Amino acid sequence: VNDEDARTLTALHNHLAELEGISTYLPALTVRLAELSNLHSNAADFGGRLDVCEEAVNQSEKLLDSVDASLKKMEEGWKINMEVAESNVKRLDELLNGSS
Fold first, then answer.
1. Is the dihedral angle over the CA atoms 74, 78, 81, 83 positive or is it negative?
2. Could you say which DSSP state residue 1 is in?
């Protein structure tokens, strides 16, 4: 074994010694990374579902606005019809009272 090989082996041995302290943490780190990956996927899925819900709420609000506008028009129509009916009844009463 020449000097260069000896230095390489010594460097590799030193790196191995440094990594031995870290290697005990690798299983826990791997588990934690897997948990974080799962959490990230769940968050992305939740974000998508939240977008769908927000869109449904927006559509419901538009529908309710449309229904509200229709009800207001119908109420105005009923008021006009009631005024016409009252006018007709009054006119009929006047005709009946006048012909008696």
1. negative
2. -
**Which token pair is 10?**
């010594």
In terms of pTM, does the model score above 0.90? Answer: no
Alpha carbon distance 40, 46 (integer Å): 10
- Assigned token pair, 26: 């690798």
3-state SS of 46-92 is: HHHHHHHHHHHHHHHHHHHHHHHHHHHHHHHHHHHHHHHHHHHHHHH
Task: List, as own/partner pairs, every contact residues 65-70 make where C-beta atoms lie below 8 angstroms and the sequence separation is at least 24, other chains included.
Answer: none
Q: In a 3-state reduction of DSSP, which class is residue 2?
A: coil
Q: Rounded to 5 degrees, what angle do the CA atoms 63, 69, 71 make?
A: 100
Each residue's pLDDT tens digit, 38-95: 999 999 999 999 999 999 999 999 999 999 999 999 999 999 999 999 999 999 999 9
